[in-house]
Amino acid sequence: MGAGNGRLFWLLAAAFLCTSFRPALREKPSELTPTQARAYAEVLNMRPAAARALLGNGQDAGTLLVEDCLGITELLISQDAARYEATVDAQDERLDALEDQTGPLAEYAAAEIRLHQAAAQVVFGHEVQGAWSLRRSFGAMQRVTERYPNYLPARKTLGMLQFFIGSLPEGYHWFLKLLGLPGSVEGGLRNLRRAATQPNDFQLEARLVLALLEETYYKKPEAALQLVQTLHRQQPENQLLTFLLISQLKKQHRTDEALATYHARPTGPGYLPLPYLHHLAADLLLYQGHYPAARRANQLFLQDYAGQHYRKDAYFKLYLAAWLGGDAVAATRYRSRIGASGRTVLEEDTYAQRYFEDRQPLNATLTRARLQIDGGYYRSALATLGQFRASAATPLRDQLENTYRRARALHLLGELDSARILYARTITRAGTAPYYYAPQSALQLGYLAQAGGQPNAAKTYFRKALSYPKHEYKNSTDTKAKLALQELE
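Structure for DUF3808 domain-containing protein, as requested:
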């Protein structure tokens, strides 16, 4: 039901705000020791007790870094506000312990821990403190690359930061300028590619970050999925890789495979609970029309999840499952919870809140078709859309959605000429209406023109996508259009 930037944020927060994917087991001043490497592997497996048993109480850079990776992973996965102060205090203590330590690993560890702290502060609503921590981390990481130009792990993290800062929509530029954060998409990609293509302890992580960025923003899904599938086959016990694989399969509309991976996920008392997996599964079950099972999955998510993000989205999906399943009483109850729950930081929650505030009801036929398209059931979606009947009384929003959904289904089936016609019709009919169907149509027409070797037409469509002042997915749409333009210019 719309990916947005939120899902990518959590994916990267869980996977990459820590230091490494699989450190090499060589004992050098710039690397983790074999024991630290094994502890870090347990962090990535999301087995905190096993990681702590290996770490001990050392104050060296490697131990402090892996400890912090464990702490930030537990905080971001649980979203438990009760952990926040203790986590940030522990980060401050580790930063104090690193002040007198030098060398690439120690200086990199300090910059990375500061980045973890920025993530914690922003996620728990301390945006000003988080912005300051981000600025300090960015500057420290730059200094590491200047002092140790061949230390590739720092280029991996610096590249990731440069890319995200450089790709933010125009509305954030004044804030970034105020902070003095010089983002650069091109520079970030260069640093990431350098870390991804040259041998170093963290090369695999850099490859994974790069592949996921290219999948999200540059329409290169096959490479990212292939990499995650390969890693998952090698480490089926790794809960993080299972999460990444389910996320990638879901984004690429491969619902049956994603659900099979969910059901085969590693479980047991040694694993850190990952409630968000149940929220993903609820979406997948909605796509299949298994409404009672979708409700159970989202209820389990809300039961086990302590955070404020995705709550509105979860209640919206519970509403959809009850409404489409014919349980009007439960649907009314779930709908009322949307407005009272969670925050509207992520686009999924913003969409749910906008639905809650909008008096215009959803159309059941169009909603089923949307879910079928998201699930990869394109022929079924077209058959569902065939049941839609517009009249003079049909709201503009529903007319636009009908045309746009047909375009998406045909596009994903490879019937490109028909899809182009319907995307263009959506744009023409929409005018300045504040719905996402027209900007998304312009974005897709841009991608089609770019793939067809028509750069000037592609630029026109991407600029058109950017021109819409207000809609549900403006941040993610604008980011994709902006990066596509930069690639063409």
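The CA atoms of residues 64 and 93 lie 10 Å apart.
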